[in-house]
Amino acid sequence: MGAVALGRDFEFRVDRPEVCPTGLAEVDAMAGGLPQGCLTEVYGPASSGRTSLMLAAMAQSTGRENVCALVDASDAFDPASAAAAGVRLERLLWVRCGGNAEHALKAADLLVQGGGFGLVVMDLADTPAVTARRISMTSWFRLRRAVEHTSTVLLVMEQQPNAKTCASLTMEMRCERAAWPGTGRPERPPQAEGLPHSLLRGIRVRVERRKPVPAMAACFESRW
Amino acid sequence: MFAAIHATPGDWEKLLRLAQEFSPLVERTAADTVALDADGLERIHGLPQQIAAALARRAGERGLQASVAIAANLDTAVHAARGFAGVSVIPYGDEAKYLGSLPLTLLGTTPEMLETLERWGIRRFRDLAALPELGLAERLGPEGLRLHKLAHGAGDRPLVPMREPLHFEEEAELEYPVELLEPLLFVLAGLLSGLRARLVSHGLATNELRLRLKLENRGEHIRTLHFPVPMLDTKAFLKLLDLDLGAHPPPSPVVKVWLEAEPAKPRAAQTGLFIPLAPEPEKLELTLARLRGLVGEGNVGSPELLDTHRPGAFAMRGFGDTETRRRGDTAMVMRAIRPARAARVQMASGQPVHVQAEGVRGHVTAAAGPWRTSGDWWTADPWARDEWDVALSDGALYRICCAQGRWFVEGSYD
Questions:
Q1: Is B334 in contact with A51 (Cβ distance < 8 A)?
Q2: Does some domain include residue A6?
Q3: Candidate CATH numbers 3.30.70.890, 1.10.3720.10, 3.30.70.270, 3.40.50.2300; the one for domain B2-151
Q4: How much is the pLDDT for A105?
Q5: Which residues of A touch B396 (CB under 8 A)?
Q6: How many Å apart are CA B235 and CA B219, to the nearest integer?
Q7: What is the pLDDT of residues A160-214, one digit of tens each?
Q8: CB contact at 8 A, B393 and A43
Q9: In chain B, how many H helices and how many E strands?
Q10: Hey, is A147 helix, strand or coil?
Q11: Nearest-CA neighbor of B168 among B135, B192, B146, B190?
Q12: Is A192 inside a domain boundary?
């Protein structure tokens, strides 16, 4: 009787963090959004839709008048794509690290410590997996600790998962299929003036939530 | 008690300096006349006659042909200084008697009013003062009453002191040339705290700091820091100067330091529960300065799309300086490869079949193209290219392009 009463008093309670939507309904339904004050890791090979997810999250965040920061380790950000995806560029701070992953880590740390950003993205998607693996766990812990108890979403894009226990949400992405135009004379899809153009019609992406368990999956399509 | 000094129009600067020697409250009444608040001068110079004599003596030493007057009210002192040569001291209560002989032109009224008074035969202060107040008000209105009051020597206008342009500058001459940044920052900390105290005393902040360093090799090193909002945080200023001087160190040891602050009204921000999250401007400026120190000057900011069809054209602007319009929602995005990697592309039947570049290699499993574009042919920097989108055997999707016979991998779809 006493043990039951004691157990009730010390009931274990998990505070679920506030989440921000990614802007992709399928991913939000599956993962519940990007947790604030936590490190979210998104990984996958090239053309797996990581950048689509990143830009959708940025568009959502800047659309809510938040200020976002992108730490671009390999200078791969395409402003035209971002503008087309709905990112408000004037609310985006772009830090170009010219391929230096160490600078990217330091810059992300400075931005998270500075505070006030709705979303901080560290884009290591083109950083060789070997280099990304060399990032010490101490650095990941430092980042997790810095973002803790803030309302900033820290999003890390990679080829392989490296943050291990420091990530609160881990998602793996891969390309299911690409949509190509039919044979014959090449044709551009209809597009608004100034949008980046493509001969490719779109890609279908599969997103799998690896952490927290249980694993779940969702698909989304990005197309012109 | 007020004093007025009247001199020839060309001597304005001397006149002003003379008045400021005696009082901080100086009014520029006309191009050739200044008035000053003489209250308290009796403690230094004694009687009003002695104050007037001191003013006249100092004017003579400065080479000014000036007439000086002292009176209980400002307008009387000004009229006396402009009307009488030499030194005049108008006793309190006898203003009308002393001013009586002065011409009405000294009152500074409109030519029409002077003409009316002239037609009435009113030419001197005493004539105007003798007119009945009620009748004057009926005929000339409020202006007539004002002139009547002035002719009586009973003006009650307050002195409107000149405002010196605010200049916030501190300087320090060093006993020996300073080579290292740390001792220089120690000097700068002292100058900053002095500047801050002066700004606070005026209820101001600053949005620009100008640092001028005199170097041992007789050169100068000038740095200017702009802030997005007016700030008063000495620690932030010092850190920003530290970061800036770290990135742009003076080429030679420093012998003298000037630090100037551009005054600005302090930022007044109303915070609220529902205002979206944004970095504090002071902290953000510091973070940006640190990031610039880490990744380089041109690598931090907001991207801005340029008004051109040239693929990949953008410019980096300072964060918070850009204003872009929102475009339609489209999720298909590309990752850029900068600079575009030179590639070797094998073609078969007009289609790419194999692509090889640094970090990119594979057989083409699907391709679409070419899409031929060109632009800027009217400028010195024209461009023309054929674009292909290709899927390689490694599973990735790339955009490749051919320009002037050379192939490049431009980016990947992600």
A1: yes
A2: no
A3: 3.30.70.270
A4: 93
A5: 45-47
A6: 28
A7: 999 988 999 999 998 888 887 764 444 454 444 444 445 777 888 888 888 888 8
A8: no
A9: 11, 17
A10: helix
A11: B192
A12: no
Cβ contact B342:B357 at 8 Å: yes
Residue A193 has a pLDDT of 44
Q: Which of residues 201-220 of A touch B (CB under 8 A)?
A: 202-203, 220
Domain count across chain A: 1
Query: Where exactly are the structural domains of chain B?
Result: 2-151, 168-264, 334-413
At the fourth CATH level, the homologous superfamily of domain B168-264 is DNA polymerase, Y-family, little finger domain (3.30.1490.100)
| Strands lying side by side in the sheet with B33-37 | B26-30, B33-37, B2-6, B67-71, B87-89
- Domain hosting residue A31, numbered range: 17-178+197-223
Complex ipTM tops 0.85 = no
A115 located within any domain: yes
The residues of chain B scoring below 70 in pLDDT are 270-272, 320-331
How far is it, in rounded angstroms, from Cα B98 to Cα B106?
14
Q: How far is CA B133 from the centre of its chain?
A: 50
A183 located within any domain: no
**Chain A closest CA to B75's CA: distance in Å?**
58
What average pLDDT does range A55-80 have in this prediction?
91
